[in-house]
Design brief:
The chain has 358 residues and is of the alpha/beta class. The protein contains twelve helices and 13 strands. The structure holds pyridoxal-5'-phosphate.
């Protein structure tokens, strides 16, 4: 299977490790095992394949994140979850609408499968939210799947619950599946931390979640898909070929973390609120950068107000200051850069950018 270069991952592999100040990150400082309230029961965890699609304990903890009880399968991160959804649903020639900017999997995998992929671009003047009329026109009777990412990486926009319901109504008219990548769900900065999940409001809604962002445990490599029984059965059929099961230890730690998620949320919101405060203050005194402040998630998209390609801008900036930003071009958003506002040393890194620009 031929597939496009995964532009973000390629860029980060090259520049993240050598950065003095890494603002490309989407994670909120990962937790260590010591910070998790595990008990001696860890020593009794059998290191077999375990429950193939995830333990009952972990699936119950995942289900507690939703309003309704869902069919769930546990995967190798959200990256594994997304891929399994595409492999299970799509065939050559299917039409897929992907709302961008987003995680590149959401258009490059369908393209690699021979699907007809239509990109629907979010606009800054709409606060990085979809225009419902435009989206309605983009989705046709031929569309099989709509992909979205909510809260959105990189813009930090959060689809309001009423709007998600409207999107579900649009999809329902032509019987379209919706894959909602919800890896940042639970990180809303305004209103309730968790917005509506697509799986709770739409029968053909597929929710992908993960331990990586909201729960600060990307090293566990645990994600999941919640959706309709027939889809989960099909995913489990595909999954036999690339997963068997996830690690028993990852399963255990994920369950413990989700059962104790309040303390993780408390810690993470402290970091997020401080990050937003620093970003806002810096934007106020750095008018060259334009930004719609994020409503959730861990990233913001900034227009840097210069007529040079974003790859060049980021490369030069990193060479001169040691600060790594992610070029918008890697997310099909030329003219912009992504910043992870929960990154360590955010304030000094922003100061370096300000000096570099002046
Ligand atoms: C929107 C989105 N989906 C999926 C992933 C992959 O997450 P995971 O670490 O759970 O595989 C990322 C990682 O950055 C992401 O931002």
């Amino acid at each position: 299977m031929r597939i496009a270069e995964f532009k973000i991952e390629e860029w980060m592999n090259k520049y993240e490790a050598i950065a003095k100040y890494d603002l490309t990150t989407t994670c909120i400082s990962p937790l260590s095992i010591n910070e998790l309230p595990y008990s001696d029961e860890i020593f009794n965890v059998k290191l077999g394949y375990g429950d193939i699609t995830g333990s009952f304990r972990l699936k119950s903890a995942i289900n507690s994140l939703y309003k309704k009880e869902h069919n769930i399968t546990v995967t190798h991160g959200a990256i594994g979850a997304n891929q399994l959804v595409f492999l299970s649903l799509l065939e050559r020639g299917d039409e897929v609408v992907s709302i961008v900017p987003t995680y590149q999997q959401h258009y490059s995998i369908p393209e690699s499968l021979g699907c007809n992929v239509k990109l629907y671009f979010l606009k800054e003047e709409n606060n990085w939210l979809p225009d419902l009329e435009e989206l309605d026109k983009t989705i046709t009777s031929k569309t099989k799947l709509l992909c979205l990412n909510n809260p959105n990486n990189p813009t930090g926009s959060v689809i309001p619950d009423w709007m998600l319901e409207k999107i579900a109504e649009i999809a329902e008219r032509t019987n379209v599946w919706i894959l909602s990548d919800e890896v940042y769900r639970g990180l809303n900065l305004i209103g309730k931390p968790y917005s509506q999940s697509i799986a709770d409001i739409y029968p053909k809604g597929i929710s992908v979640g993960s331990m990586s962002k909201t729960y600060s445990l990307p090293g566990l490599r645990v994600g999941w898909v919640a959706g309709r029984a027939d889809l989960i059965n099909e995913i489990n059929h595909q999954r036999q070929y690339n997963t068997i099961s996830i690690s028993a230890l990852d399963d255990y730690f994920s369950a413990v973390a989700l059962e104790n998620r309040d303390f993780i949320a408390q810690r993470n919101f402290k970091i997020m609120n401080e990050g937003i405060r620093i970003l806002k203050e810096w934007l106020d005194k750095t008018p060259r950068f334009r930004c719609i402040l994020p409503k959730g998630g861990t990233t913001a998209l900034l227009n840097y107000g210069l007529n040079i390609p974003s790859r060049e801008f980021c490369k030069n900036l990193q060479e001169k200051t040691g600060v790594a930003l992610l070029p918008g071009e890697t997310m099909e958003m030329e003219g912009y850069v992504r910043i992870g506002f929960c990154a360590k040393n955010l304030a000094p890194a922003l100061e370096l950018i300000q000096n570099y620009m002046s």
